[in-house]
Amino acid sequence: MHMPIKKYFQEEFGEAPSFIAHAPGRLEFIGNHLDYNGGPVLGAAIDRYVTVAISARKDDKIVLVSEAQSIKVETSLGEIAPMCGDTSWGNYPLGMLKVMRDAGMNVPHGFNLAVANDLPIGAGLSSSAAIELATGYALATLYKFAIDKKSIAILGRAAENTFVGMPCGILDQGCSSFGQAGALVLIDCTSNTFSTKPMPDGTHFWVFNTQKKHALIDSFYATRNKECMESTEILRRKNPNLANLAAATEAMLEYSKTELGPDRYKRALHVVRETARVKDTIAALDSGDIKRVGKNLTASHESSRDLFENSCAELDFLVADVTKMPGVYGARLSGGGFGGAIMALTDGSFSESAAAKLVADYAAKFGNSPTIFHTKTGDGAGLL
Length: 384
Ligand code: GLA
Description:
The chain has helices at 5-13, 91-102, 127-142, 149-164, 171-178, 217-238, 250-255, 257-286, 290-308, 313-322, 352-366; strands at 19-30, 40-56, 61-66, 73-76, 111-117, 183-188, 193-198, 204-213, 328-334, 339-346, 371-375, 382-383. The chain is an alpha+beta fold.
């Protein structure tokens, strides 16, 4: 556990911070790669946070420190540009500064900012969206810039898209912003509308992180995004009014199958069927049919594995193994894929010893152990 952020800030900068903000990590519940295709997605904020503390500087310097990073980032208001190497962690706060300035925030002087994590980095829980949103609240307060839950989520995504260079959708930032303890976050990514739905009674989230990160993960993600955009364009030749890929039908895909070619056809079929699965999951949640919810989660994983092809042997093993265990409703890869974490929805009988058995099975096959998080849903980002 990190030392309290106030003490850390004081040690680093020799003064007390003026404001402290935090933002949670997220789980993707269902709706894999639907966000940038305009589909509906369900996620949740978890009760693990990135916390940032900020104070104004008299000069135009920006100094960023993080408990999780050994390298300090120093720059100035006149030279904000993406960084690489050891200082690239600074791109999340700097990206927020850039997009908020572009949106009209007046920044007359620099600032000191310290970051503390009780959200693990690289665990598939989206610490990047959390640092963006926590920084967004801290900057907005320091520079008296009006924001709300929706605008900060949109700004966070813009920072990721335009400054970090990751063509993600709104899922991570939307969940971190609109999360609520005891609730799932539902996002309609065509209209950017956010709402919550109660978590089914007596259910639990278990996350198993493979700690595997494919070296090409970002380029694989970008490739999938590109394949989806191309599919949309191809479908529009025969369906000029198609709003986005999530609005397509299987009949449309059949009609353009030759033009799509085998890979784009599979990606598009995943998007169309996953969209139907999210809608069915919403209906199942509304009628309290947790078993059906669980079946949809596992079917979503299978579609990622076979059609979207963003799974890997480690994730497939964890899903296949955990879904055989008592007390498990369903499981799936959570997030971008190509490594990362799976999430299982369980009842209260699933225990640490069941989780340990899964870890042992995995270690026997792959030689290393996934990390386990028995997580609860948490409240969204804000000033503390
Ligand atoms: C990552 C991205 C999200 C979303 C998921 C896949 O988490 O950041 O925007 O696309 O992958 O559903």
